[in-house]
Amino acid sequence: MPNGAQSLVEGLVDAGVDVCFANPGTSEMHFVAALDDVPRMRGVLCLFEGVATGAADGYGRMTGKPASTLLHLGPGLANGLANLHNACRAGTPVVNVVGDHALHHKRLDAPLESDIGSLARTVSGWTRRTYRATDLAADAAEAVTAAYGPPGSVATLLVPADVSWSEVGKAGQAPVRTGPRPGAVSSAAIEEAAVALRSAEPAALLLGGAAANGRGLRAAARIAAATGARLLCETFPARLERGAGLPPVERLAYRESDAAAQLAGTRLLLLAGATEPVTFFAYPGQNGRIIPDGCEVLSAATGTEDATAALEALADLMKSAVTPIPQAPLRPGPPTGALTAESAAAAIGALLPQDAIVVDEANTSGIWLPAATAGAPPHDWLTLTGGAIGQGLPVAVGAALAEPGRPVLALEADGSAMYTIQALWTMAREQLDVTTVLFDNRRYSILDLELRSVGAAAPGPGATALLDLSRPDLDFVALARGMGVPAERAITAEEFTDLLGRALSEPGPSLVDCAVPPLF
Amino acid sequence: MPNGAQSLVEGLVDAGVDVCFANPGTSEMHFVAALDDVPRMRGVLCLFEGVATGAADGYGRMTGKPASTLLHLGPGLANGLANLHNACRAGTPVVNVVGDHALHHKRLDAPLESDIGSLARTVSGWTRRTYRATDLAADAAEAVTAAYGPPGSVATLLVPADVSWSEVGKAGQAPVRTGPRPGAVSSAAIEEAAVALRSAEPAALLLGGAAANGRGLRAAARIAAATGARLLCETFPARLERGAGLPPVERLAYRESDAAAQLAGTRLLLLAGATEPVTFFAYPGQNGRIIPDGCEVLSAATGTEDATAALEALADLMKSAVTPIPQAPLRPGPPTGALTAESAAAAIGALLPQDAIVVDEANTSGIWLPAATAGAPPHDWLTLTGGAIGQGLPVAVGAALAEPGRPVLALEADGSAMYTIQALWTMAREQLDVTTVLFDNRRYSILDLELRSVGAAAPGPGATALLDLSRPDLDFVALARGMGVPAERAITAEEFTDLLGRALSEPGPSLVDCAVPPLF
User: Fold this and answer.
1) pLDDT of residue B456
2) Nearest by CB to A36, which of B111, B460, B472?
3) Percent of chain A having pLDDT more than 70?
């Protein structure tokens, strides 16, 4: 008779969840042991929980189906929360499995006891603690269903150790079939959107979430072609398909003044998978809103509806004879001379392989990347959805596991890299085809900008020290090699182009340290 | 007129909090700028929030007074929670400052919005969000008061960005005097304890929290000498003073069978600063309790009373003529031959400097350390109070900042080190005198043991892969050097002794990678 852990792992696999990003402890040992009984589940060890949760996010963004995590009690979940926050904001399906003390042990307030439920609910659309081994398979299936949504979300299952180790009785519930639900659309919302778009006021479409994937994008491009509406995508999309042959779409700018310029004159903003844009942070004297006064905001689909299907229905209704103009194939030439954020972007644009998955946490060093890669061969672009830095390298791990045939390019800022640098080890262990470009400007450069934006005084030595990543310099070549990832440092544009080309052409992980001056 | 952030920093400094372990973001920029206005506050940059919170724990354990943290919104707090959990379990005073979005920005649900309060309350004895700049100085003082306790705790202050940047009006509250409160004791509890001890049943004293510091220990030794009671300390003390000339005290064992043997025959267990011991984890067929059936449990002080003062009052009441026997100075000789956890412990015992602060997260590789160092010159021993690994290197940072004249020895397991490896960089930047011994057995070795203890089957390849830190091997010498910390690897006992001796004799940080076989 199986124990609860075996039944849980079987239940997950039966529901299609067959990858588990794990950082287990004592209370998860039966789950770990069950991996040998259910070899269809692939366990992937991460050396820090933020790597496990970020990897589950990357996996879910690419496959549209959840991976599982395996985390150890409250502190293990806490370490994984920042990247679950990003997954939550991305609408990624994730089944987040957290071990807990045995039920009878909880009242003893042992050293690792804590309020796991409160932690879990801050990032989860669905949270449950299972109290009987016999319920675990059904609860696993419910977690998977909840994770799929729509909207996709983090579903957290808290599994007490005794529930894992107890035998499942004969009365164990029958497995529940689960999977993505067919998308629902609201005909009324689509009719309303069509009427509004036909009124011919300057309009814009803002895509987000799953609607920024290929299908939604193509439908949105048909709508834009039919109506003259401007096609925009949220600032930090979970997964944007782009490149030569695809409909080009502009991302809304990060800075309020730039975003306001993009939306100037817009009288109608139609949302699909996105919410009304606001500034990322508050600044003195600003109210946080971006859209112009008097601009009407409509949504083609609510959070529980299928925004992609809604766009397709709307595009069909608009019946345009105009064919959208796809992005032309255009690449910058290989750069020469000084290595800067701009010349590095040119090298990346020149070399980006077909079908690449780009994970972008380059932050300030990345501002030239969208333009430099717009006409590269088709690729996916995954961004920092929730603003919790330390997302890039873990998401690259998950994306590479999800799509073993596709090259992954992680564009990573030095400051952000250090939050979850342990991801490099999992890349090496699993021999993932991830090329990391480490933009090494030795600053929290975004904060140089933000310090001015919030109106703080010119920084003196005390403030400056907290934005500075030198004294000592971080040696990312040593850090990568120390975790089994081959690495080299580039200090000219030619060196960078050469090293990047070699890294992309070879299988397995590698890192190119890209020495660039800070922007600000 | 100062802004809120300046008033907050001044309020903290006025209350004696003059070190801030920081990993700031945009919403904390005014606090960062205020460091230049209030130079008495020392800002210490950490590259990951778990380093900042663990450093605050180490600082508080050594000084008895709180340091401040500076964390960025919900995800920044989440990254710091595991070490705040350890601080919470240690009873360490910490003032945990977390920036939040501006109040008017919160309703916009910007990407970084999350439920910070729920996160904070899982680890904090006191949590407050400040709504007016004019309240910040007073709230800072209240946070400091709450952190001191007793019991010492994490006090979390949530500071919206607009509260930081707004001017403090003339009506700004007068600063509140704060500091540690004089300890209260319960005469009734002390009388009751004296009567029970005099009944001459086999008794044991279990010290924990602040009572394991020197004063409590000396008083407890007088009580033990007067009554024949066995002197024990909790398994994972926050700070235990020990070594030649001090009263020797045994730590309660981690494993249930060993701890039960220590307590066998005990009819009275007197707690001081500790709670009734329970097993760290639950195991099938065990009930989690350790004390023998029929053993009476008494407490000399409740959580809000001063356990150290209670012990002193009790010792005075017992009026013993017997002088406690101090620990004799005894050191192992320098080891030769194979480098193992046992020979490494001998080398550490042979070389441990006077007044060292030992931070022990050696886990399985550390089992010979207590015996090997018992007779070393007087030193402090800081342990993993809450079981959330990744505590050792950050606590070493904070302890070294707190006691610049004393050598710090961080005894660290490879698996645990990887959770907060970024601490090495702060050691290098601040040129802290921390010698790290990295017990490098390439396993989560504790889990090899725990997998058997919970009764899971003999591990197959799936389970084994999740306990194994090889494939690829971590190169801690490269990792340390990559963060600016000099490092060498020892593979024989002689090499280890030589490298450790040199590292201890030189100022500034260093790391000795200690290649040992796993125990299990």
Assistant:
1) 66
2) B460
3) 98
